[in-house]
Amino acid sequence: MSGIEVEPRRPDAVRYGRWAPRVRWRLLPWWGRVIVVYAASRLLTTVFVMLLAREQGANPWTGAQPGYFEYANIWDSRWYQVIAAVGYPTELPSTDDGHVAENAWAFLPVFPGVVRLFTAVGVPWDVAAVLVALSAGLGAALVFHRLMSRFLEPDQAMFAVVLFCVAPVAPIMQFGYAESLGFLWLAIALLLLVDRRYGWLVPVLAVWAFTRPGALAFALTLGLHWIVRWATRRRDPFPVRERIVVASVAAFAGVVGLAWPGIAWAATGSLTAYTDTELAWRSAYIGYVELVPLTPWFQSGEWWLGQPMGTVVPIALVIAFGLAIASPWVQRLGVDIRLWLVSYALYVFAVFFPQSSTFRILAPLFPMAGALAVPRSPWWRGGLVLLFLALQVGWLLIAWGIDGRDWTPP
Questions:
Q1: Domain map (residue ranges) of the chain
Q2: Contact by Cβ (8 Å): 142, 31
Q3: Cα–Cα distance between 67 and 52 in angstroms, integer?
Q4: Distance in angstroms (rounded) separating the CA atoms of residues 32 and 36
Q5: What span, in angstroms and rounded, lies between the C-alpha atoms of 246 and 222?
Q6: CA gap 109, 107 in Å, rounded
Q7: For residue 100, what are the β-bridge partners?
Q8: Is the peptide bond before 308 cis (omega within 30 degrees of 0)?
Q9: How many other C-beta atoms lie within 10 A of the C-beta of residue 380?
Q10: Which of 27, 40, 158, 160 has the most CB atoms in a 10 Å sphere around its CB?
Q11: Where in the cell is it found (predicted)?
Q12: Using an 8 Å Cβ cutoff, are 337 and 370 in contact?
């Protein structure tokens, strides 16, 4: 024996060589893996989008066969562009019969404000909007990995990120929409809540409330969190100081969640400016009606399915969601994630009128991807990715492509 100890080589390095793809993947830090997954998924989605664009005819936003950046900024993206250019109307537009028409008050100001910073230095709107959305989506994926790592093993947390990146509505993260920024603030807020860093929630909620709707649902999450911590205080101490902080942050979330309707009222002089604007979008389906909480899903069910299925299906969906929340896979995600899932689902059920935008509106339930990442079977994981990609193509065909008078907005 020479007395010189040779460090044993890792099995992967022996079998595949140091620079084999599997070895290089395992040598990457967690954030490097997330970046690779996000980049690969966005490239694949870009292929889907460009194939669809080749078949796209002339429409209200583009000519036939538009380029990527132009095609990625149709539908609601143009509302954000209008907001960045001229702001919000002080006088609500009206239809011929006197109802409030669709207008910019339905869209929150943070996303167009951020994009405008880039256009101010010469970046075209279409390019800047996509770059902002892409960057925010990457940030959301990185934070989501940290969040899932609080509950899952490393391979499960990474697969949860894979599902987030290839989800059926994931193309929205590379379009001129505010969803990516909303995902980012939500992921940060949930991570702060799980880590009980309550004070840092204040600035996050303040920005999130003016990016995408959801702060009101998070206020409910915080209220339920307070109740759970109070009920379990004997085994998990809940000091008086934390009780005050959580209650205060919950109240703050409620205030900022209601701030935008208040701002619309102040700017237009109409107390119901925001809700009337939102109701204008569902008027094409059921006409102009008052907003009565917990009724829109039944109104939509009747319009789409008639009776009795218009009542049966929403009730069945509620029951199915409840069973999913109670499942062992979802329970792995911890009580705070489940509180958010319930809170946001209740919020959507209370005020949203289901139509083709439902898939996008439900996207803030993305922490559910962590539950689907629990099984380790290669068949399960591979099949789920293929299913999500197929559904992604389906979503693009149904919701993004435009065919005449289109009833399927994204």
A1: 29-400
A2: yes
A3: 11
A4: 6
A5: 7
A6: 7
A7: 94
A8: yes
A9: 14
A10: 160
A11: Endoplasmic reticulum membrane
A12: yes
Give the pLDDT confidence of 321-377 residue by residue, as tens digits: 999 999 999 999 999 999 999 999 999 999 999 999 999 999 999 999 999 999 999
Q: What b-and-e string marks burial along 78-110, b requiring 16 or more CB atoms within 10 Å of the CB?
A: ebbbbbbeeebbeebeeeeeeebeebbbbbbbb
3-state secondary structure labels for all residues of the chain: CCCCCCCCCCHHHHHHCCCCHHHHHHHCCHHHHHHHHHHHHHHHHHHHHHHHHHHCCCCCCCCCCCCHHHHCCCCCHHHHHHHHHHCCCCCCCECCCCCECCCHHHCCCHHHHHHHHHHCCCCCHHHHHHHHHHHHHHHHHHHHHHHHHCCCCHHHHHHHHHHHHHCCCHHHHHCCCCHHHHHHHHHHHHHHHHCCCHHHHHHHHHHHCCCCCCHHHHHHHHHHHHHHHHHCCCCCCCCHHHHHHHHHHHHHHHHHHHHHHHHHHHHHCCCCHHHHHHHHHHHHHHCCCCCCCCCHHHHHHHHHHCCCHHHHHHHHHHHHHHHHHCCHHHHCCHHHHHHHHHHHHHHHHHHCCCCCCHHHHCHHHHHHHHHHCCCCCHHHHHHHHHHHHHHHHHHHHHHHCCCCCCCCCC
Let me know how long the chain is.
410
Per-residue pLDDT tens digits for 110-129: 999 999 999 999 999 999 99
**Residue 339 carries which side chain, given as an amino acid letter?**
L
**Chain position carrying tokens 């209220």:** 223
**C-alpha of 168 from chain center:** 12
pTM confidence score: 0.94
> Token match 């062992």: residue?
328
Q: Give 94's strand partners.
A: 100
183, amino acid identity: F
